[in-house]
């Protein structure tokens, strides 16, 4: 019997760590027992259960039915459930398609969405270096230099930190990073228009689109720079 995704989402909302983590584990086990592919089951648990729970949290917060402490508890439960899915979502047998540095821009502590994007990219053959939330532009610059990344992902969840995406891109540009790397932006308030305005190379509304966009940007870079330059 498949797990009840609504019950899992509600456990996230209630901050019920035990129920949420045991249902996540149970969902994976039942999928395996039914002979379904681990990755398909993990994505289903993530999208229908965990993200479903965060959608309810967002709605309740907007309606002022819950407050920051409750949101923090739910976020903690969400992280623990994601830890159970991580080994499956990040497993990839392919050589790296590209190297990405991802983080949430300075001043912004939201990290759930960018963690999901990072996990999905890893599972799709990218080498991913996640520098976490509240990441200053210099931190992006240093990590790209250290890892020779060809993709940079900037997340922002607040309208007040969206300008920091622009600022970070400006600094990446002035440091010469964007000669060999492409930059993509995302986060709930971010739009394709904003991405264009701040000279990002691309925008994706969610993790699935982010994977396609990352592939496209790396292919475009390869064409532009040639394979030899990409290897340096
Ligand atoms: C959880 C949460 C918190 C938690 C964060 C915990 C954590 N570890 O992340 C806590 C409680 C800390 C928090 C704090 C605050 N928050 Co808050 N938070 C949220 C909430 C409810 C959910 C965010 C989330 O995790 N969503 C689930 C994930 C899966 O979705 P996602 O992040 O959008 O990510 C997806 C896509 O956007 C995309 N994506 C994300 N990043 C990237 C990056 C790239 C490169 C790409 C391509 C794609 C991509 O892919 C992801 C997966 O599909 C949102 C509500 C909302 N509607 O977003 C408010 C929300 C973002 N918060 C808000 C506010 C106001 C705050 C505070 C200022 C509150 C306060 N008064 O202190 C503080 C700010 C603290 C700070 N300096 O950052 C507002 C922002 C309003 C605005 N217009 O700016 C929101 C919208 C709530 C609201 N409606 O009022 N928050």
What does this 3D model show about the protein?
Helices cover about 60% and strands about 10% of the residues. The protein has about 230 residues and is an alpha/beta fold. The chain has two domains: about 90 residues, Orthogonal Bundle (Methyltransferase, Methionine Synthase (B12-binding Domains), Chain A, domain 1), CATH 1.10.1240; about 130 residues, Rossmann fold (3-Layer(aba) Sandwich). Helix 3 runs antiparallel to helix 4 and helix 4 runs parallel beside helix 5. The termini are far apart. Bound molecules: cobalamin (B12). Cobalamin binds next to helix 3, helix 4, helix 5, strand 3 and strand 4.
- What portion of the residues fall into strands of 2 or more residues? 5-15%
Ligand species: cobalamin
The parts where pLDDT drops under 50 for at least 5 residues are none
- What's the CATH first level of the largest domain? Alpha Beta
Total number of domains: 2
Biggest sheet layout = 5 strands, parallel
Q: In oligomeric terms, what are we looking at?
A: single chain
DSSP E strands, number = 5
Mean residue pLDDT: 94
Tell me roughly what share of residues is in helical segments. 55-70%
Sum up the structure in keywords.
single chain; 232 residues; alpha/beta; Methyltransferase, Methionine Synthase (B12-binding Domains), Chain A, domain 1; Rossmann fold; 5-stranded parallel sheet; 9 helices; 61% helix; binds cobalamin
